[in-house]
């Protein structure tokens, strides 16, 4: 996997796919710009997700914003997508200028550099909301909005330039907050109504437990496949007690069919393997299910099902510590659900 795809998907996995067991509904927009595109890797990309489902996409190779979910096609006309395209093209022009500015700021004469931003909002089960804006450069955090203090958190001296500029402006944080708490939530509610049948479906996880001995330890793996929605809890128990501090985890990450995959592993004394159980909790299950290695039917109501090939975990590739991001405009979404230039100060 190349660095561009790894970086983009790495941020995706860290951002769009977050949530607790009874997780919120979410709307996320991801913007990626690269300094050196390659065949099949556009230099500019926008993607939008609702609850981890891709709903729209724009890239610099096609030059068009297109729907990526059937329920978006069915509910939005061509004029909507034409408007989306025009605004995305304007964003693309600004990104091109700002990438050059960033390279100059950090004395980067060439090479591959990746600029990422994510903005979005959550609608929680109790009706409350939360929003966030964050950005990264070459896989490293750069600046983020603190919604509580209405200030920006900068990671280093370079990010402080952006922080000072936006806070001296006096309107940037307020514009972002208004978008995240109002416009974004309204768009999320609208998109949820369009895709309710897909977004509210529940698919049970397939669970498999395996073990491998080495170096005097037994490593137990618990893998859950093919579940939806994304929020899930997979825990290892020893003598009925949760052992979270000893557990390594991966995912959840998306499968190509719109479901998810996750895993949890723990090291055990081979002589104590019978003391360990894997517990799985998910919205599709009436109660928690418990599984043991060597018991394909699981315990309680669990059913161990085989034959599912897991997706590999995607890793974020990062460049050197000295490469950190410069400031640039933030493209938000207006009341009609269109991206707009808001609060970023235009070209640098």
From TrEMBL:
Coiled coil: none
Listed Gene3D superfamilies: Immunoglobulins, MHC class I-like antigen recognition-like
GO CC annotation terms, alphabetical: external side of plasma membrane; extracellular space; MHC class I protein complex
InterPro entries for the chain: Ig-like_dom (IPR007110), Ig-like_dom_sf (IPR036179), Ig-like_fold (IPR013783), Ig/MHC_CS (IPR003006), Ig_C1-set (IPR003597), MHC_class-I_related (IPR050208), MHC_I-like_Ag-recog (IPR011161), MHC_I-like_Ag-recog_sf (IPR037055)
PROSITE patterns assigned: IG_LIKE, IG_MHC
Keyword Kinase: no
Keywords, alphabetical: Disulfide bond, Glycoprotein, Immunity, Membrane, MHC I, Signal, Transmembrane, Transmembrane helix
Family matches, as SMART domains: IGc1
Annotated GO biological process: antigen processing and presentation of peptide antigen via MHC class I; immune response
Superkingdom of origin organism: Eukaryota
Ig-like domain span: 213-291
Subcellular location, principal: membrane
Keyword Glycoprotein applies: yes
Residues making up the signal peptide according to the UniProt record: 1-22
Location of this chain's protein in the cell: Membrane
Topology of the protein relative to the lipid bilayer: Single-pass type I membrane protein
Family named by the database record: Belongs to the MHC class I family.
Protein name from the UniProt record: Ig-like domain-containing protein
